[in-house]
Design goal:
This protein has about 425 residues and is mainly α. The chain contains 22 helices and two strands. The chain has a two-stranded parallel sheet with strand order 1-2.
Length: about 425
Amino acid sequence: MSLNAKSPKSKSTLLYSFFLLGCLATFPVFPSPEIDATFKELYPDPWWSTSWGIAAISIGAAVAVAGAVAFTVATAGAGGAMLGAAGGWITTVGSAVGMAAGYGSGAAAAGLAILGGGTLASGGFGMAGGAFVIAALTGAATGVITDISISVAADAILKEPYRRYEYIKVPLIEKKGSKDVRNIVKELKEVEENFAKEKIGKEEFENETNRLSSELINKASNVCESKQKDKNSLFDAINIAILSYNKQDEEIQKLCWDSVWPHAKNGSFLNYLSALNLLSEGQYEKAIKDLETAVAKEPTALQPYILYIMSLNDLDEHKKSLKVAKDGLKNVSKKNYHLLFAAGNASFYLKDYDSAANYYEKAYNAISEDMIKTDTAMMAAISYHEADDNKSAWKWYERALKTLGKNNEDYKAEITRRWSDITNET
């Protein structure tokens, strides 16, 4: 029947419809919550910019330079800071927190250098600098413990290069999400610090880390299944997805990821973690597309550039790797050590040794930590040597020794031995 028909029934139906519309209009419509899933929002204070992070990387690199075959290959954190603060060569302080035994929650700058593949440059140099570059992808408080020898990791990576990405663990978000979840992440970080300062032993460290990780999943995993979302629950879901990735629990990770994606107004971090997951499966083509998207969404974020450069190096695409590093220097900072060193490496492998030396020199001036500066100076020296500029090569070799100061004679001797091998000097 037409609505124009003069029927009491049709009139009452029409009036009722208007009544319902009026009622609906009086109820508030709540918009779907949105979050900014960017690196700037999630990680405002990157650990590698802190004295703790730099010291952890530095001392891990010292272990690598010393030729250690057993060291942690997970994320940065426990142990390294105290060794770095102690100053001096690894052999004199290596037992301070048990790092020489190869156990810890993190840092593994020695392991990170192995993971970097292309950063293992001529003569065993480039390890500290390369470790610091890759360490931009890691951090403290990951909720997992990795205890593996470099030799085991290296054997796996030599056979299947993509396996390196399994060992890169992503730090949990500390300053976003519900109070309960933030408190657990804070406790995880405190446990690492207590282990580093020898306030707790290995067994307690492991038990507490596992307990808190389980507590985090139990407390927050239901937010991934819930249809009701607010901003805190979305950040909690990201933390659960990160922890699940670190633990290689694909089912929970996917559940939480799928629950967050529709609410991310800028998901650069989500694209990045997706790429890291794909790289761990050897799916380079898909991963690179995700990294291109992450860089486009947040061009000032360092981490996507570093992972992008690593993946290109795995494919021996050093020319493209250099371009990505240059883009990063333009968008992140022209004085960023990580990108300057990465550009130096790319130029080195392209056999453009003059450009490589130039990038390493700039990287040297962009970092204050002695171990990393020394390693970078040696890469400049090697680059000049390859360019047949022996005067500059020896100048940078001498600068490397001078940078170490008076309390690192063992390390100086090791550098001298390796330099002699490279230059065929006795």
